[in-house]
Design goal:
Strand content of chain A: under 5%
Number of strands of chain B: 14
Largest sheet of chain B: 10 strands, mixed
Structural class of chain A: mainly alpha
Distance between the termini of chain A: 88 Å
Distance between the termini of chain B: 61 Å
Number of domains of chain B: 1
Oligomer: heterodimer
Mean pLDDT of chain A: 88
Low-confidence stretches of chain B: 472-478
Shape of chain A: extended
Strand content of chain B: 15-25%
Number of helices of chain A: 29
Radius of gyration of chain A: 35 Å
Structural class of chain B: alpha/beta
Shape of chain B: globular
Number of helices of chain B: 14
Strand order of the largest sheet of chain B: 3-4-5-2-1-6-11-8-12-7
Largest sheet of chain A: none
Largest interface: A-B, 56 and 52 residues
Order of helices and strands of chain B: HHEHEHEEEHEEHEEEHEHHEHHHHHEE
Chain lengths: 527, 478
């Protein structure tokens, strides 16, 4: 009886599992087949759409004619293919106007706008004012359709509508996007805010600034990074609108507004040198008179970077002060802000920061000087040669290695890199080439003295000029560590240059003797 | 004699009821997680079509991320991994490879391939970690730094990486993993979107075995050859698509795979970094982070995203699989025991009230009940001590329902991501989802029980798993 039961159970188990698996397999199979067919049809539709659209974009076409010729595309698959193609064309600058006209004539803008506005509350406050100023003449659909939309227009549909309206910018779309900012769903709001930023229409900037304030005051569920990303896309000419945020009593609002202006200014400065004339007088005054002495260090820190774009005497003086600010964070930003050839007059002040108590400031100072051109690099090297501060030396040494300064310095040495020290002894004025040789020799000597020889040894083994190797060998001659010995030996045996081999061998022999002597001396007596 | 038989029946019934209750609870939890995941993944798929990834890619506001790769004897996979990291589509990234005292050619290969130069960089530790022996960098490959240190274990290597990292977020990657080009961007997306501090963002790990890899990128996705590997594909789908997605929806992420995970650096440093007291440092650090954030009453969230994909090499033999699973089980038990004060503690919210109890009673110790069930119920049924209906219920819960869950994970994969384009692969996946419950699952339970035994014995170290790169076009030992 028991065995029979077990057999029955096993059979039923197998049947159940097989049935379950077969059922699901069939569903998946059917789904795959349906999808494949759908995408085959879509591919064909894409082909047809391309055949219709290409001539329209190749020759100047009237939108009415274009829409009439698109009348042949009727099925839902063809409509999807057409939508994809038009959205793609909307991204091409020269196709933008025609695409907008076609999409509008097809009635899609109205459809998407209606969908997006389906759940948004009636515009009020600043958005209503703004819409009125922009000429919004939107007429909501009749009651029945409105009710239908309230049910069918879920947040995904509204998000997609906002996304499409954003991709095909039209005034009607922009009005809908503005209204979408007040949509009850945060994702719809997020997309609308994103596109407001992408289109960067100065008229819509106050909406984003208002949203930023709401976020920072905890009245909005949006991510502050999203708002910031949208805001930094506006032009430098529009930053006057930030006055309300810049003068806000909440220091976080002031900080973010300052930081956004910094980003905008930095982006513009990447293509052109800015001056105070690129900023409105109000903004200039705020930064030069108030922000560099704001109670909150974060504001001062970010303000330093904006001020550095003014490039006038007043801003230079403010930067000089900020370089000595009590907060290390401000000093670091001020130092970074001065990282340009235009602030060479501040180089001496930046050099002071090489001995800062905070390593991030020291690091910023080293990098800033390196970015001030050859003169700035000379400042770094001079500071390295003369500094007695261990931390400063370490920091500069790291930058020399990591930033590639050491390699550049050695590679740019004039032919016959070795310095004729007799010129120095004789007190003769050094030529420019000799000065570079002297600087290189001193830097290498300092690195050896500081025990930071790792990279020098690597260079000795590498394919660099023989005369540079001779400089390195001369400076490393006093080193008798096992690493040095090994490198000298490798050079003596394998270097392609006979002079280098000879010198390396001589140094190796001396260093080996020294090493043996030291080892013997350190061994306990009696061993 | 009769009373003895009654006693045996009574005891058997108690055990049987416990076992059945366990299967009810476990399967019930998995089913809830499955339905949550279905809804979440479906919605995510729709949302991603209008997500602003391009915006994030181009925004100067996007925070930099340091990718930390701890490597120990990974000479065959390390170059591929680092190449894939260098090709990541992310605006500001830094890559730190920490060679944890490899005894093979890992370091040498890195130095030669990327022409790295040894440098004297400054070591400023914020977390206790072994002092590095050497730093390597090539100014022409600015994002990459290689650190060589004496062997100190993976947590130590990770802590070294955190100490050298300069970004507000860091991403941990196993040295035998390959990341998809936009995976870091997708993993950071929820961090950027979040209105509160996202301290952890984890992604999905999929199995590389069988796939075709070219220039550090997976170019063709195929199922592996060996049954052990195929079973793991199904298992990973279930674990990542169901389990972790569901827990994420409940904000109860307790397990995040260290193979591919982003952390907020300052939070991890404050939480003490990666610890040495468990063999699964990735689970432990997540628990520490939860503990810290709850103790400090800070608003935070964790995230799990299903489409930033990390491809990893899975064990291809039963022996290797056993080693891996014993280690995972040992680590999980160590972690839940270490953090048992959070258990049913309302102070820790979902973590304390739901997630940790599930991990403890279902994932960590459930294997004992399950193992007992596989032996006790059939034996007692054969001896006539268990009634037929109870035995039937057991079979239904242990095998049929398990099949339903496994096949469900394949269905979820197919209706959302469809990563396996070949029809044959899909059918095979379904087949293995069915077969998984008849042998493989029981084998895994056995390994988990062995892990428990290791815990009872006080084992602290883990068994080394040496993977083999098995892709569609090449096969080389790693």
């Amino acid at each position: 009886m028991l065995i029979e039961d077990i057999i029955t159970i096993v059979i039923w188990l197998i049947l159940t599992v097989v049935a379950l698996a077969t059922g699901l397999a069939l569903i998946l199979l059917q789904r795959r087949v349906t999808r494949r067919r759908y995408f085959e049809r879509l591919d064909e539709a894409r082909q047809r759409v391309q055949e219709v659209l290409d001539p329209l974009y190749q020759t100047p076409t009237d939108p009415e004619t274009a829409v009439a010729s698109l009348g042949v595309l009727r099925s839902s698959v063809e409509r999807r293919a057409l939508e994809e193609a038009l959205l793609r064309h909307a991204r091409v600058p020269q196709d933008g106007a025609l695409t907008r006209a076609i999409v509008k004539k097809l009635g899609w803008i109205d459809q998407w706008a209606t969908l997006l506005r389906a759940r948004a509350p009636r515009p009020s406050g600043s958005i209503a004012t703004m819409l009125a100023e922009l000429g919004d003449d939107y007429r909501p659909p009749n009651l029945l359709r409105r009710l239908g939309l309230r049910v069918s227009a879920n947040f995904v549909k509204r998000c997609r509508a906002a996304d499409k309206l954003g991709q095909v910018p039209t005034p009607e779309g922009m009005w809908a996007i503005l209204v979408g900012v007040t949509d009850p769903h945060p994702e719809v709001q997020e997309i609308c805010l994103r596109y407001l930023g992408q289109h960067a229409d100065p008229a819509t900037l106050p909406v984003l600034i208002e949203e930023l304030i709401k976020v920072l005051e905890g009245r909005s569920s949006q991510s502050v990074r999203n708002i910031k990303t949208a805001l930094v896309q506006y032009s430098l000419d529009d930053v006057g609108a930030f006055q309300i945020a810049l003068q806000h009593s909440n220091r976080r609002v002031r900080f973010f507004a300052t930081d956004i202006i910094r980003e905008i200014a930095d982006r513009r400065a990447a293509t052109a040198v800015l001056s105070k004339n690129d900023f409105s007088p109000g903004i200039y005054r705020l930064f030069t008179e108030r922000f560099h002495q704001d109670e909150w260090p974060d504001v001062r820190a970010r303000a330093a970077v904006v001020i550095s774009h003014f490039h006038d005497d007043a801003s230079t003086e403010i930067l000089r002060k900020l370089l000595e600010d009590e907060a290390w964070f401000v000093r670091m930003h001020a130092t970074r802000a001065a990282a340009t050839k235009l602030y060479l007059p501040l180089a001496a002040d930046v050099v002071q920061r090489l001995t800062d108590t905070n390593w991030l400031v020291r690091e910023a100072a080293t990098k800033a000087l390196s970015q001030m051109g050859e003169l700035g690099v000379d400042f770094v090297l001079e500071a390295f040669i003369h500094s007695q501060d261990r931390y400063t030396n370490e920091q500069i040494c790291e930058e020399l290695q990591r930033g590639g300064l050491l390699i550049t310095m050695l590679e740019n040495l004039p032919a016959d890199a070795a310095l004729d020290e007799s010129a120095l002894m004789a007190g003769r004025t050094l030529t420019a080439d000799d000065q570079r040789r002297w600087m290189a020799a001193m830097v290498v000597r300092k690195m050896v003295a500081a025990g930071m020889v790792t990279m020098l040894l690597m260079l000795l083994r590498g394919p660099i000029r023989p005369d540079i190797k001779m400089v390195l060998l001369r400076e490393l001659a006093g080193c008798s560590s096992p690493e040095c010995l090994e490198t000298f030996q490798v050079c003596a045996e394998t270097d392609p240059d006979p002079q280098v081999r000879g010198t390396a061998l001589a140094i190796f022999q001396v260093a080996l003797g020294k090493y043996t002597e030291l080892t013997l001396a350190s061994e306990p007596v009696g061993n | 004699m009769e009373s003895l038989r009654d006693l045996v029946i009574f005891i058997t019934n108690i055990f049987n009821n416990i076992i059945i209750l366990y299967f009810f609870a476990a399967n019930g939890s998995y089913t809830i997680l499955m339905f949550l995941s279905f809804a979440h993944v479906w919605l995510y798929q729709m949302r991603i079509s209008y997500a602003g990834l391009q915006e994030v890619r181009e925004s100067p506001v996007t925070p930099p991320v340091t990718v930390i790769v701890p490597a120990f004897n990974e000479e065959n996979s390390i170059i591929l991994t680092v190449e894939s990291l260098l090709h990541l589509d992310y605006p500001a990234k830094e890559i730190i490879v920490v060679d944890d005292g490899s005894t093979d050619q890992t370091l040498q290969k890195l130095l030669e391939h990327f022409q790295l130069i040894r440098m004297d960089l400054i070591w400023r530790p914020r977390l206790a970690a072994t002092t590095p022996a050497a730093f390597y960098h090539n100014p022409h490959i600015a994002p990459l730094t290689v650190i060589s240190k004496p062997n100190g274990g993976k947590p130590d290597a990770l802590n070294v990486g955190i100490n050298m990292a300069r970004s507000p977020y860091f991403c941990t990657i196993d040295a035998d993993c390959i990341l998809e080009k936009d995976s870091l961007l997708r993993l950071m997306y929820p961090v950027i979107q979040s209105p509160v501090n996202t301290v952890l963002s984890a992604g999905i790990v999929r199995i590389l075995n069988g796939c075709v890899v070219q220039d550090g990128q997976v170019t063709e996705i195929r199922l592996p050859e060996h049954p052990v590997e195929k079973f793991q594909v199904v298992e990973y789908l279930r674990s990542f698509l169901f389990g972790r997605t569901g827990w994420n929806l409940l904000q109860g992420t307790f397990i995040a795979s260290g193979a591919f995970c982003i952390f907020h650096r300052e939070t991890v440093i404050e939480a003490g970094g990666f610890g040495h007291d468990t063999v699964t440092e990735d689970i432990d650090v997540v628990a520490n982070v939860h503990r810290l954030m709850r103790a400090k009453k800070r608003a935070y969230r964790t995230s799990f995203t299903t489409d930033p994909v990390c491809w990893t090499i899975a064990p291809h033999t039963r022996q290797l699989l056993g080693k891996q699973r014993r280690r995972w089980q040992l680590g999980l038990i160590q972690t839940v025991m270490k953090h048992n004060t959070m258990l049913f503690n309302p102070k820790y919210g979902t973590i304390g009230m739901l997630s940790l109890p599930f991990q403890t009673f279902v994932e960590a110790f459930g294997c004992l009940v399950e193992f007992g069930g596989y032996i006790l119920i059939p034996v007692s049924f054969l001896l006539g001590l268990t009634p037929l209906d109870l035995f039937l219920l057991f079979v239904l819960l242990a095998f049929v329902y398990g099949t339903f869950l496994s096949v469900g994970s394949v269905v979820l994969e197919e209706i959302t991501f469809r990563r396996y384009p070949r029809m044959g692969d899909l059918m095979r996946l379904l087949w293995y989802a069915v077969l998984e419950n008849f042998g493989y699952r029981q084998m895994i339970v056995l390994y988990r029980v062995q892990g428990f035994v290791q815990y009872m014995r006080g084992q602290k170290s883990w068994e080394l798993v040496r993977h083999t790169v098995r892709t569609g076009t090449e096969e080389a030992p790693a």
